[in-house]
Amino acid sequence: MIATEHPLCLGLETSCDETAAAVVSRAGEVLSSVVASQAQLHAQFGGVVPEVAARRHLEASLPVVERALSEAGVRWERISLLAVTRGPGLPAALLVGLAVGKALALARGLPLVGVNHLAGHLYAHALGDPGQNARSLPRPAVGLVVSGSHTDLCLLPAAGGLVLLGTTLDDAAGEALDKVARLLGLGYPGGPALERAAREGDPTRLSLPRPLGLLRGPRQEQPGVVGGQYAFSFSGLKTAVATAFGRDPGLAVPDVAAAFQQAVVDTLVQRTLSAVRDHRVHTVLLAGGVAANGLLRTRLHTELHALGVELRVPPVRYCTDNAAMIAAAGWMAWQQGGAADWDLDVDPGLPLAL
Q1: Could you tell me the domains of the chain?
Q2: Beta strands in 65-209 (DSSP E)
């Protein structure tokens, strides 16, 4: 519990398989952040089952909210704003969170704002450590948001807003990591399992391609554009692993895991360095669940440090899905547009925007 006089926001996050609630002050102080994971539930299926996730959200939402208030040491009377994820994500899961958010806001007479989940990952950088004020997002900067369903490279110009430089043309980086982990029999969640296996492997034992052909395309830097030199593609890389493993089942799983992880990280780092050089920024904001990957963090830090560029990464607990980042983004949404109308709806395909 943190003593603060700042107004408080209750954030709700249900975009996938994590039911989360958090209390965050307008200064970015995190008073509580509660996450109820469904990982064990979905492990038996080898991935998230949307209908199962939605039912568990129904069961867990109110207990998680009450726990977040209890851990923050505050009553409902201290809450000034309610923020809920409206997209992107699984439609049924998003609908549960939005319905709960609307019901609580109506019952408590609170303003409600809908938050872009991907923007929330960026706003994890605006969360302060206990007792400290939040850091504002630095500008100009390049942002790399890497998660299970999204791989987005963006520019945060000095004048404000966001320019989407490139996104994935097929599988996201996290999705590819999960699929290859399943192929190798490493279990679920796949990303962390593959990283653990890769620590024991030799990435040079298997030669894998790097999806660099897109770099020959025209430079495209308009919002919503996905092609061009900043685009990502991991489907072919995933297929190359499946083909190699099928031809030689004797390949050591740790070696395959290490080679694949190296190829994914090489691609993410290369695109990011290209954007940094082209736009002459001195800060990179890494965010999203894959930002917890140790090799990615180390490689980006090393490469960017050599260029005199600062890498900022949230604490691991705020890289994966959580509601503290949603509350932080909620304060910004409130300042920019005020409360949402009661006909606010979910948008499962919502693109990255601030």
Answers
A1: 8-127+319-337 (3.30.420.40), 141-313 (3.30.420.40)
A2: 79-87, 112-116, 141-146, 151-156, 163-166
